[in-house]
Design a protein that fits this description.
Oligomer: single chain
Number of helices: 7
Structural class: mainly alpha
Number of strands: 2
Distance between the termini: 76 Å
Strand content: 5-15%
Shape: elongated
Largest sheet: 2 strands, antiparallel
Length: about 150
């Protein structure tokens, strides 16, 4: 083994094997990253490479077909974990829990803004459908708190 990329590839795979025992989802994501680096031959896993290149002469992009096939299998067998990861990172979608936390933060902000308003002003806010749902909920919560005191 003379190519440093082979040594790094093997070391990364062992690292993922260790991570697998502590955090399976993280290991799946890191493995996908390692496979992507292998597809573009930044990392090398096999002594024989089956490649496909796009471009002209010295300015071409080389793809390792065998590592790409392994990547497809990896994605197919772990699609649930990887699709959640894709939605979070690429589409920037929030989980249900994160959405609830953000909503509660907005409601708290509106509650602090509306705390000095009269009951009549709060009812006006509640009846205004053009306002954010968090603002309306904050006004409702303030009125409810006032009625229970």
């Amino acid at each position: 083994i003379t190519d440093i990329r082979v040594i790094i590839s093997v070391a990364l795979l062992f690292m993922v094997l260790l991570i697998h025992y502590f955090n399976f989802d993280l290991a799946i994501k890191i493995t996908l990253g390692i496979i992507i680096l292998g597809v573009f031959q930044i990392l090398i896993f096999f002594p024989v490479n089956m490649t496909f290149s796009l471009g002209y002469a010295n300015s071409s992009i080389v793809f390792d077909i065998l590592v790409f096939a392994i990547g497809v299998i990896h994605f197919a067998t772990n699609w649930k974990i990887l699709s959640k990861f894709y939605n979070k990172v690429v589409k920037n979608e929030l989980t249900e829990e994160e959405t609830m936390i953000k909503s509660r933060e907005k409601i708290s902000l509106f509650k602090s803004r509306f705390s000095d308003k009269s009951d009549r002003e709060l009812n006006t806010i509640i009846n205004n459908e053009k306002l954010l749902p968090e603002a309306i909920n904050a006004a409702k919560e303030i009125l409810k708190d006032r009625q229970t005191k």
